[in-house]
Amino acid sequence: MSLVIGRVVMYFEKDNYLSCKPICLIWTWTFDLSIPRKVLVS
């Protein structure tokens, strides 16, 4: 789970570091927490 979140956060930061702010981090966290098991199962 932490690896997935870390990778997603890193990707978002590299993709849109200036545009991405706390909102992006919250969105990624919510998305990961929303379906953490589904991602792991897949």
Estimate the helix proportion, in percent.
over 70%
Low-confidence runs (pLDDT<50, min 5 residues)?
A: 36-42
Class by SSE composition? mainly alpha
Q: What series of H and E elements makes up the topology?
A: HHH
| Range of strand content | under 5%
Summarize the biggest pleated sheet: none
Number of helical elements: 3
How far apart lie the N and C ends?
A: 13 Å
Number of strands: 0
The domain tally reads 1
Mean pLDDT: 53
Based on CA inertia axes, which overall geometry fits?
A: elongated
Backbone CA Rg: 11 Å
Pick out its properties.
42 residues; disordered C terminus; elongated; 79% helix; mainly alpha
Describe what is shown at a glance.
The chain contains three helices and no strands. With 42 residues, the protein is mainly alpha-helical.
Write the layout of secondary structure elements.
Layout: H1 2-15, H2 22-34, H3 36-41
Helix pairs in contact: 1-2
